[in-house]
Amino acid sequence: MVFHTLIWQIHSVVVNAVLVSLLGLLVGPTFPLVLDIATNPNTKQKPGTPSPLPIFTPEVQLTGLAIGASCGAMGAAIFSLSTGIAANHYGAFIIEPLALGTVGFVLLFWLTTQIVSKCVRK
Predict the structure, then answer these.
(1) Do the beta carbons of residue 56 and residue 65 sit within 8 Å?
(2) Mean pLDDT score of the chain
(3) In the 8-state DSSP scheme, what is residue 47?
(4) How far apart are CA 67 and CA 54, in angstroms?
(5) CB 98 within 8 Å of CB 88
(6) Looking at the whole model, is its pTM more than 0.70?
(7) Tens digits of per-residue pLDDT, 62-83?
(8) I need a labelling partner for 83 at 20 to 30 A (CA). Which of 59, 77, 105, 112 fits?
(9) Given a cut of 80, is residue 33 above it in pLDDT?
(10) 40: confidence class by pLDDT, cuts 50, 70, 90
(11) pLDDT band at 110, cuts 50/70/90?
């Protein structure tokens, strides 16, 4: 969220290009990490060993991950469409606050799932 705020507030093309590049570098590994956690959430185990508490059982793992990935892609498409419509109506300055709000929503969603999963596991 810090990078989004800096990109929004700093009006330099060079600085914004560097910040966007760093943001992409940091956010890029998110999808493979989520897939790894969904298949083996116990990170203290050796990779490839079955987890005692997998998020998806092996019978539904492929289907569950495919549905999750397609819902994520659908959300990205809806965000892009709604941002484009808002930018067309209000101007291009609206893009960064919408992106910042989306990152904030994802952060709140992630924190909520962590709290719920800790309560369920106890």
Answers:
(1) yes
(2) 78
(3) T
(4) 17
(5) no
(6) no
(7) 787 888 888 888 988 898 898 8
(8) 112
(9) no
(10) low
(11) confident
Whether residue 82 contacts residue 94, with contact meaning beta carbons closer than 8 Å, is answered with: no
Cα–Cα–Cα angle for 114, 8, 97, rounded to 5 degrees: 55
- Exposure string over 96-110, b if 16+ CB within 10 A, otherwise e: beebbebbeeeeeee
* Whole-Å CA distances, 18 to 25, 40, 104: 11, 34, 22
- Nearest in space to 2 (alpha carbons), one of 110, 88, 100, 111: 100
Q: Whose CA is closest to 42, among 59, 32, 54, 60?
A: 54
Q: Where does 51-121 have alpha helices with state H? A: 61-90, 95-121
Lookup: tokens for 46: 């050796």
Measuring CA to CA, which residue among 97, 95, 110, 83 is closest to residue 27?
110
